[in-house]
Design a protein that fits this description.
- By secondary structure, the chain is mostly helical.
- 5% of the residues are buried.
- The longest helix has 23 residues.
- The protein has a domain of 61 residues.
- Helices cover 51% and strands 0% of the residues.
- It is flat, with a radius of gyration of 29 Å.
């Protein structure tokens, strides 16, 4: 290999290794005081701590939060992870409509309708315009149909 390339590689590896070792050997950062009352008591508005100044004690990070009192009227609703429909829609929003049309070409209508509902209206319209007319007609009708009522 050429010497300039070897020098560049050595520089990158050396800087990366030095940074890693420096971070491993450095003490963990400490939190600053919540306010600068201690510094103000000593006539300094910079917030710097001077010799003889005392820092207010803060609870450690590992302290558990106080227990929450449960209200018998309130029911906790678990937060579900994003569904596959939401994940697919998130990926598709980053693509141009022509690429989306190529990708959804092989999806079933049952899988595609919820995904298209999550996309923005102009993107959905552009994708439908790129699909075959017969399929776009069926998908459009399904997109416009009201959602079925949830069972109680």
């Amino acid at each position: 290999m050429k010497p300039p390339i070897m020098i560049a590689i050595a520089l990158v590896v050396g800087l990366g290794g030095g940074t890693f070792l420096g971070m491993k050997q450095a003490p963990p950062p400490t939190k600053a005081a919540a306010d600068s009352a201690t510094a103000k008591e000593h006539g300094d508005s910079s917030g710097a701590v001077h010799e003889g100044a005392t820092m207010p004690s803060t609870p450690p990070d590992s302290a558990e939060p106080p227990p929450v009192k449960e209200d018998p009227q309130t029911v906790a609703v678990p937060v579900a992870p994003p569904s596959s429909t939401e994940r697919i829609a998130t990926v598709l929003t980053k693509l141009p409509p022509a690429d989306i049309a190529l990708l959804v070409e092989h999806m079933s209508d049952d899988d595609l309708v919820p995904v298209l509902k999550k996309l923005e209206m102009p993107t959905t319209a552009a994708v439908l315009a790129l699909l075959p007319a017969a399929r776009a007609k069926v998908l459009s009708k399904r997109l416009l149909a009201p959602a079925p009522a949830a069972k109680p």
